[in-house]
Structure formats: structure tokens, C-alpha cells
Write a structure and sequence with these properties.
Blueprint (H helix, E strand, L loop, with lengths): L3 H21 L4 H27 L5 E8 L2 E6 L2 H27 L5 H20 L3 H19 L5 H33 L14 H4 L3 H11 L11 H4 L5 H10 L1 H17 L1 H7 L3 H19 L4 H21 L3 H32 L15 H15 L7 H13 L3 H27 L13 E2 L10 E2 L8 H28 L8
Antiparallel strand pairs: 1-2, 3-4
Helix pairs in contact: 1-2, 1-4, 2-3, 3-4, 3-10, 3-15, 3-19, 4-5, 5-6, 5-11, 6-8, 10-11, 10-15, 11-14, 11-15, 13-14, 13-18, 14-15, 14-18, 15-16, 15-17, 15-19, 16-18, 16-19, 17-18
Protein name: Multisubunit sodium/proton antiporter, MrpD subunit
Membrane topology: Multi-pass membrane protein
Family: Belongs to the CPA3 antiporters (TC 2.A.63) subunit D family.
């Protein structure tokens, strides 16, 4: 049995072994993809080992080496990181399965390069999850950016290159121009970059207090992967990538690494009590609330399905930032639960978008009329994912909104309760309208079915019967992962209590 301490470095090393195997199997696609899946299974097993150990009260740690005195590349698993590692590795397995169906079904080129970059990216995501200090987090944060750039530009056309430039430019500019100075400033104040229960800076309150707001701003906008407005343009521009990449960016690694970093920095660098006492995070509560509503308003006007989902992600990510900046225990718990719930819901939606592209070659919401009757499983799963994002029981997304509202009340930010309620209503409009169009409106024009057989469908009023469409779903390798994540969004609702208890150590020193 592998020890939790050894599982930490192996979680980074094994995807790199998979990288080499994928490269060597370039000319044997079946074996190449088997290597991808085998790597994902082993990585998930390692994440489970770490997750269980942390749940039992352990804090496994591993120091790789010290770059200079006081700046080691080191790993330590705590509840938030262990949860993120489990979510990232589990959904990477699902995404790898989906990628096989999508890449083959869509006839994508350069598939070996695609899987190789995925392997490096998940290794970087695990490095972010288990980072024991800001220095280690920064290194793997940057590796994650660089390894996903070839995925964003995978198609190689002018649109992909432009999207890649925006993606790389925004993320590198924010991390080097804002995040790195924030880390250096933290080191100057505290003499360390280690994550500490109760907050590293709270132990140096006298030196940190005068610059707390500015330092928090550098972190909030320097972690560009959190997509807090106005440093969000990289995210919608990255939608030029193949859909498995979009799912990976939005659910598995990149954006989750961003909001995870924000939450971890608030809890372990600033300290929830310290931020609450000083009120330094109050302006960022309003910035996060504004991002939630503005991104939702933009999403409502997007006809391109992936673009609509991208702006939805900008909005939903800001829930995590809001929870962190409320600087109360309930807000932190709401933000942490949102990481897991949103991952399942949004991955379902993006994989459904890819399945629609593979099976029906449709990219716009306005083109989906009647498609629910030819792709019923896909659109039922889309409905489940959308309802979870909206926050309706019994779907996982309902618990984060409950705790965020509780946190807003506890922090005296009553307006944020209204923001969350209005956001849910906007989610209904721009997300649930998609399966409604697909199921309830008949196809027309060139997309209308040619069958002569008719039946009294759900809109039948004696005058306008609907056609009985032939079922034409995406390939099984696309469909099975969609069913798994949609089911996960339901199951997580009932296990959120156990996850809440698991994450409670985050709030032990909080208000």
C-alpha cells in the first residue's frame, strides 16, 4: 500500500510517465488512449489515498527540494487541496474517456499532442492542489498555463491563434505582473510563503494591516484563472479549443485552480478572522457580486452555445470568490462546496455541447429546435446540469448557494443575497431555455425530419402534431461520461453533508 506521503509526488510524476507512454504510442491510437485511461485511473487511486488520509486527520507532506533557503518546492495535503485533487483527478478520467469519443467522432488532428498536453496539465493541477506554499503554487500555476496553451490553439487556424494569444497574454500578464509581486511582498512581511492555519499574515498583523487591501487586490486579480472581471477575457476567447479542452478548462483544472487558489490564499495566507476584523475584503465582495450579474447578463445574449457557457462560468466562478471575500465561515464553506458542485454541473453542460457538435454539427442555441427528440439522453443530462447550476434541490449546486446566502447574512452583506437570487433567475433564463427549445419547439426548414409518421407530442393541441424523430446520439464514449457527471450532480447533493464535515477544518480558526 502506498503511503499518503509518497502519493503526493507520485500524483505529479505518474502523469509524466503517461506523457511519455502516449508519445511512444503515437502510431498505435488504441494503445495510446489505453495509456491515457490507465494513467487517469492510477492518478485517481493516488488522489483517493491522499483524500482518505486527510479525512482521518493526517496532513501528509513531502519536500521535493529547496530552491534557495526558505523557498522549497514542497507539498502538503489539507482538506481543501485533497478535495480539489480528488475532483480534478476523477473528472480527468471522465474527460479522458469523453475525449476519445469526441476526438475520433469529430476527426480532430494531432491527437497524440492533445493527450500529451492533457497529461502535463493534470500533473500541474495536482501540483497546485497539494502545494504547501505560495512559491510551489506559483510554479505549478504557470506550468498549467503553458501546458494548456497548445490545447487552446489545437485547431491551428487564425481564430485559434488569436484565442491562444489572449489566453496566454492575460494569464501570464496577471500572474507575473500581479501575483508574483504579491508573493514577494508576502515573503517580505512574513519571512515565509508557507500556508498556515489561521493565516500566515495574521501572525504579522502590525506589518500587514496597512497594506492588506492592496495586497488582497494583487492576489484577487493576479490569480487570473479565477476570471474575476475585468481579467476574464481569456476564458471566452479560449472557447476556440475542442470541447474536451473547454470541459477541462471550465471544470477539471484551469478555472478551478484559479478559484481554489483564491480560497486557499484567503484561508491560509490572510486568515478569515483577520480579513473579517479589518474589513479589507469588503470591496471585493461587491466586485465579485458585480461579476456574477454582469457575466450572467452577457451570457443571456450569446447565441453560440459554448460562448454562453463560458460567460456562465465567469459568473459561477465569482461565487467562490464571493464566498472567500465574505470572510466568514459559512461563506468559505459555500465557496469550497461550489468548487465541487460547479465542476460536475459545468462539465456536464460542456460535454453535452460537444456531443451536439459531434452528432448534429450544431453550435448555436437557435439551431437546437427539436433536437431534444433526436438526442434525448444528451438534453436530459443538459437539463440536470443546468438545474444544478441554477441551484435547485436535489442537485449539488443548491448547497453552495444556501451557504453563500447564509455567509452573506452573517457578514452583514444582505445585498449579496439579492445578487445570488437574481443570478439564479438569470441562470434559469439562459440555461434552462436551451433544453426547452430542444424539447418543446419542432425543427423547421432544412433541419425538419423527413419521416411521414406523426404522433401527439407534448405540444399536441389537435392541430399541430410533432414528428417522431429518429434517435441519433453521440458515440458511447461521448455519452457515457455525460451520464456519469449528470448522475454525480445528483449524488453529490446527498453526500454534501459528508463533504461539509470533511471541509470543516477550514473554518476552525474562522469566525
Amino acid at each position: 500500500m502506498i503511503s499518503p506521503e509518497l502519493a503526493l509526488p507520485l500524483s505529479l510524476a505518474f502523469p509524466l510517465v503517461g506523457f511519455v507512454a502516449i508519445w511512444l504510442l503515437d502510431k498505435r491510437p488504441n494503445w495510446r488512449e489505453a495509456a491515457t485511461l490507465a494513467t487517469a485511473v492510477v492518478l485517481l487511486a493516488l488522489a483517493i489515498v491522499v483524500f482518505q488520509a486527510v479525512g482521518a486527520g493526517a496532513r501528509p507532506a513531502y519536500v521535493l527540494f529547496e530552491v534557495v533557503s526558505g523557498l522549497p518546492i514542497a507539498f502538503e495535503a489539507e482538506p481543501l487541496g485533497a478535495m480539489f485533487g480528488l475532483v480534478a483527478s476523477g473528472l480527468w478520467l471522465v474527460n479522458s474517456l469523453y475525449s476519445i469519443g469526441y476526438m475520433r467522432g469529430h476527426g480532430e488532428k494531432h491527437q497524440t499532442r492533445f493527450y500529451m498536453c492533457f497529461a502535463i496539465a493534470i500533473a500541474a493541477a495536482m501540483g497546485v492542489a497539494y502545494a504547501a506554499n505560495l512559491f510551489t503554487l506559483f510554479i505549478f500555476y504557470e506550468v498549467l498555463t503553458l501546458s494548456t496553451y497548445p490545447l487552446v490553439t489545437h485547431k491551428g487556424d487564425a481564430k485559434a491563434r488569436h484565442g491562444g494569444r489572449v489566453y496566454l497574454g492575460v494569464l501570464m500578464a496577471t500572474s507575473i505582473g500581479l501575483l508574483l509581486p504579491a508573493i514577494a511582498w508576502t515573503y517580505a512581511i512574513a519571512g515565509s510563503t508557507d500556508f498556515a492555519p489561521g493565516g500566515l499574515l495574521s501572525a504579522h498583523a502590525e506589518a500587514a494591516r496597512p497594506v492588506l487591501g492592496l495586497l488582497l487586490a494583487l492576489y484577487a486579480f493576479g490569480v487570473g484563472k479565477a476570471a474575476l472581471m475585468p481579467v476574464h477575457p481569456w476564458l471566452p476567447n479560449a472557447m476556440v479549443a475542442p470541447t474536451p479542452v473547454s470541459a477541462f478548462l471550465h471544470a477539471v483544472a484551469v478555472v478551478k485552480a484559479g478559484v481554489f487558489s483564491i480560497l486557499k490564499i484567503v484561508v491560509y495566507v490572510f486568515g478569515v478572522d483577520f480579513l473579517h476584523e479589518t474589513g479589507a475584503s469588503a470591496p471585493f465582495v461587491w466586485i465579485a457580486g458585480g461579476s456574477i450579474l454582469l457575466a450572467s447578463a452577457i451570457a443571456m445574449h450569446k447565441d453560440n452555445l459554448k460562448a454562453r457557457l463560458a460567460y456562465s462560468t465567469v459568473s459561477q466562478l465569482s461565487y467562490v470568490t464571493l464566498g472567500a471575500m465574505l470572510a466568514v465561515s459559512a461563506g468559505v464553506m459555500g465557496g469550497a462546496l461550489q468548487i465541487a458542485a460547479h465542476a460536475l454541473g459545468k462539465m456536464t453542460l460542456f460535454m453535452c455541447a460537444g456531443a451536439i457538435m459531434v452528432a448534429a454539427h450544431k453550435e448555436k442555441v437557435s439551431e437546437l429546435r427539436g433536437l431534444g427528440r433526436t438526442m434525448p439522453i444528451t438534453f436530459v443530462c443538459f437539463f440536470i446540469g443546468a438545474v444544478s447550476i441554477v441551484g435547485v434541490p436535489p442537485l449539488a449546486g443548491s448547497w453552495p448557494k444556501f451557504f453563500l446566502m447564509l455567509g452573506a447574512a452573517d457578514a452583514g452583506q444582505i445585498a449579496m443575497i439579492g445578487v445570488l437570487m437574481l443570478s439564479s433567475l438569470l441562470n434559469v433564463v439562459y440555461l434552462l431555455s436551451i433544453p426547452a427549445v430542444a424539447f418543446l419547439k419542432p425543427a423547421k426548414g432544412a433541419d425538419a425530419p423527413l419521416e411521414k409518421e406523426w404522433y401527439a407530442g407534448p405540444l399536441y393541441d389537435g392541430r399541430n402534431a410533432l414528428p417522431r424523430d429518429p434517435v441519433k446520439e453521440a458515440p458511447p464514449f461521448c455519452l457515457i461520461p455525460i451520464i456519469l457527471t449528470a448522475t454525480g450532480a445528483i449524488v453529490l447533493f446527498f453526500f454534501s453533508g459528508a463533504l461539509y464535515d470533511y471541509l470543516l477544518p477550514l473554518t476552525e480558526t474562522g469566525r
